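Morning. Coffee machine broken again, so started the prediction first thing and wrote up yesterday's gels while waiting. Chain of 151 residues, entered below exactly as on the submission form.
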Amino acid sequence: MKEGKRLQSIYETFSGEETAELGRNLGLRARAGDVYTLQGELGVGKTVFTQGMALGLSVKEPVNSPTFTIVQVYDSGRLPFYHFDVYRIADVEEMDEIGYEDYFYGEGVTMIEWANLIQEILPPARKEIIIEKDLEKGFDYRRITITEVEP
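Came back before lunch.
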């Protein structure tokens, strides 16, 4: 599959609060139908970033990683928020069983953790977020790369 334009922004955060704030700012600008993919090793702050994004969407209920449920739906914000964690997906066909297209192409905002595991079904237009640590810059330092992918 050939991909189109890619616009990339790089941010540095030095605390969990700054990481959450970056997510919140993204949530404030999110529009219906936006799909975000989120990658980073375990413990890098994916959930903190996602919780910030939920705040930007005005989600009222607590946001946790949906590791065992695959998708968690939050309807209390200004847009529905669909939070996927596909880490435990053994076969991409499992996504068909939960009706992923209704979420990815629906009227809400979708966040997909570990999206590299389902690359073949990702929408061609999305925002890819990669969170990385660099312990030489501090325990709480994060480099966050956001790439807008357009068909």
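Residues 16-29 form the longest helix (14 residues). Going to sketch it on the whiteboard this afternoon.
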